[in-house]
Amino acid sequence: MNITPNPQVPKIQIPVLYEDEHCLVFDKPAGLLVIPTDKNEHHTLVNIVNQQTKSKEHLYPAHRLDRDTSGVILFAKGRESQEKLMQFFKEKKVDKTYIAFAHGRLKEANGKIRIPIKDFHQRKFARHLPAQSALTHYAVEDYYRDFTVVRVMPITGRTNQIRIHFSKIGHPLVGEDKYAFRRDFELRFRRTALHALRLEFPSLKGGHKIKVESPLAKDMADFLTKENR
């Protein structure tokens, strides 16, 4: 989808973490849609970065992050590069690492969550879709009084996979309001506490992998300093 820049889009600056002739990696802020929905929003990441960079080739996302999720996101320069990068995701050649804050205390320091989920974008069709296999690896980074800091590595890429999986095992992410009830937890956070920390993907030039990291989002870092262990 080719999106025409709109002058009403606020001129915010999205940090660039990496760039070569085929792609750009941005540090996405929380609270921003990646692409417009059927409501045709203009204040989206794809619109903003295309205005910001003024690249000769249109920038297209190679994958997506939730509106609430902050951190590393990969954009392709042109359709051809987008198709190749998206194929890397399909072939599981891309390693993704997230930091999440999960309610409660996870008993296992390392674990795997293998629960089938429905991978869909339009909720009204959900009941007609079969559940698909989904696998998430995780490792505990630290324990706080009311939550656990977890490093999360999704092996499959289902929609909302991390959020669904942690809710299914009884440890929904802090701030979760779609797959858990906020009123069930005393701990409050203004968004789902999920940050895309690292992305490692094959270079389209060949011969090596590119690894890009994003520092933990400020609101999540501040949350850690305020909470008691």
Key terms for this structure?
29% strand, 229 residues, 10-stranded mixed sheet, alpha+beta, disordered N terminus, single chain
The string of secondary-structure elements, in order, is EEHEEHEEEEHEEH
Unreliable segments of 5+ consecutive residues = 1-7
Q: Separation of termini?
A: 47 Å
Radius of gyration of CA atoms, rounded to a whole number: 18 Å
Strand content: 25-35%
Q: What global shape is seen? A: globular
Helix content: 10-25%
H/I helix tally: 4
Q: Mean pLDDT, nearest integer?
A: 89
The biggest beta sheet reads: 10 strands, mixed
Please give the number of β-strands: 10
Q: Which structural class fits the helix and strand makeup?
A: alpha+beta
List the helices and strands and how they pair.
Elements: E1 16-19, E2 23-28, H1 45-53, E3 59-61, E4 70-77, H2 79-90, E5 95-103, E6 110-114, E7 135-143, E8 147-154, H3 161-168, E9 194-202, E10 209-213, H4 218-226
Parallel strand pairs: 4-9
Antiparallel strand pairs: 1-2, 2-4, 3-4, 5-8, 5-9, 6-7, 7-8, 9-10
Quick overview:
This protein is α+β, with helices and mostly antiparallel strands and 229 residues long. The protein is 17% helix and 29% strand.
